[in-house]
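Protein data sheet
==================
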Amino acid sequence: MTVMVDIVEVSPRDGLQNEAMLLTTADKVELVDRAVRAGARRVEVTSFVNPARVPQMADADELMAALPRHDGVRYAGLVMNRRGLDRALAAGVDEINVVVVATDTFCGRNQGMTTAQACDTAAVLVQAAREAGVFTTVTVGASFGCPFEGEVPPNRLREVLTRVRDAGPDELALADTIGVAVPSDVTERLTLAREITQSWTPLRLHLHDTRHTGVANAVAAVQAGVTTLDASIGGTGGCPFAPAATGNVATEDLVYLFDRLGRPTGLNLEELTSAVAWLERRLGKQLPGALLRAGGFPT
């Protein structure tokens, strides 16, 4: 039996958080709706963070209130602290995503605390979300490299993953936040994560295509047995707190890839490329994904 590749659409959150152009709430609703029409069933729609630090996400509460609900579609919100969690729960999210950055320097820039403190915070947030009946993911940022400290040694990652596992999330994600990983890194670090979680916690991978290794890394992940991958329509994205951060791997590029490999994603390539063209017009620039211009396989 062929296992489906589950793509979590992150363009409304990670895709927009680093953009100079601020989209209206109505445009964000349209982006989410286009993703759902393309077949997305998990969409990370916003982050409940300080709007002074991430102004692109200032309308998180208004956006959640405006989003139409669809059977089988789950909306996720990223949270960093208890205030953010309380806002997300009040807004009616189906999932939360909590970030723990693997290095102290980047964690300090990203959320104003050490990695150990972020692990402690994640444990509190996971417990509170579970009590509210909300699905939880903890994402370990900079799992493959840090813009400030460089290489993240396997022993450091092991320590962080162990603490995150002990927090008890429903899902654990490794993030290549600055797009430095190559396929051998993906295989190695997912193997490490599987060893630590003992298959009790599902794994997910968050990829950036900064150095054009994102698609290859996605193949390595699926070959390693991890079939839940983050991607962003058009390849939008980046981190406001990482120098020279660029976009996520493009959803449409992954869909083309896995379609050709005979691995279903449940996503429609025509709807996705239409969404890319629409988003380019809204942002006023060309996005890095390839499929809008190249098209699918010629027929």
Observations:
- The chain has a mean pLDDT of 96.
